[in-house]
Amino acid sequence: MILESIQRSAGENPQGLALAFYQSHTADPEMLTWAQLWDAIAKLGTRRAERFAAEDRLLLVFPQGNDFHVCQLACHYAGLVPVPVPLPTGAGGTERLLGILADNQCAGILTLTAYKASIAASDTGPGAATPILALEELEAVTLTDIAPPYSATPDDLAFIQYTSGSVGAP
Questions:
Q1: The pLDDT value given to residue 94
Q2: How many CB atoms sit inside 10 A of residue 35's CB?
Q3: Rounded-to-integer distance, Cα 128 and Cα 122, Å
Q4: Which of 145, 160, 164 shows the shortest CA–CA distance to 72?
Q5: Which of the pair, 90 or 135, is modelled with greater confidence?
Q6: pLDDT tens, position by position, 22-56
Q7: Which stretches does DSSP call E strand in 64-161?
Q8: Greatest CA span in the chain, whole angstroms?
Q9: How far apart are CA 26 and CA 18, in angstroms?
Q10: What is the Cα–Cα distance from 112 to 100, expressed in whole angstroms?
């Protein structure tokens, strides 16, 4: 339903503001119009559908910002189950990420290029063979066709969220 609303807004008000993320009260926000948001979701969703099967789980490792929201919505577009986690910081963060990865049997990890190497270096556990994709790499792929959105049902899993208070194994 949310994807249909975004697509409709992109058609009716393409230049209207869809997302604005403020890093601080003094910085200019990262902004996306409805058309930009829908285009990013559809293209990224199509790229993911080419690499993963519907209902696969995909770990999203992002800082706060519009990239995270676009990636989560693109998972829904492709029929994937997003598993959002914060960037690992310190020994506890890495352990938490590896625990979530093992607990979910994720088909892949999506992050930004700036974090890919550090995630790969820490991924020595049971998920070490998990492919790690950078958002920028997926965005660079030229598409000839955009796939239609996945037809979700009310029984489909929307996402898996671990509580921020989890300090040990998931």
A1: 77
A2: 16
A3: 9
A4: 160
A5: 135
A6: 988 888 899 999 999 999 999 999 988 888 999 99
A7: 81-85, 108-111, 132-134
A8: 48
A9: 20
A10: 19
Query: pLDDT tens digits for 86-115?
Result: 888 776 777 788 888 888 888 999 999 998
Phi and psi torsions of 77, nearest 5°? -60, -40
What letter would DSSP give residue 42? H
Residue type (1 letter), 28: D
d(CA 150, CA 165) in angstroms, rounded, equals 33
Task: State the pTM of this model.
Answer: 0.86
Give the pLDDT confidence score for residue 127 in this predicted structure: 47
Separation of alpha carbons 36 and 138, rounded Å? 16
* Element spanning 82, H or E: strand 81-85
Phi, psi at residue 10, to the nearest 5°? Answer: -65, -35
Instruction: Determine the Cα–Cα distance for residues 102 and 12; give it in Å rounded to an integer.
Output: 43
Q: What is the rounded CA–CA span in Å between residue 77 and residue 75?
A: 5
Two tokens, residue 169: 């194994």
Residue 124: band (very low, low, confident or very high) from pLDDT cuts 50, 70, 90: low
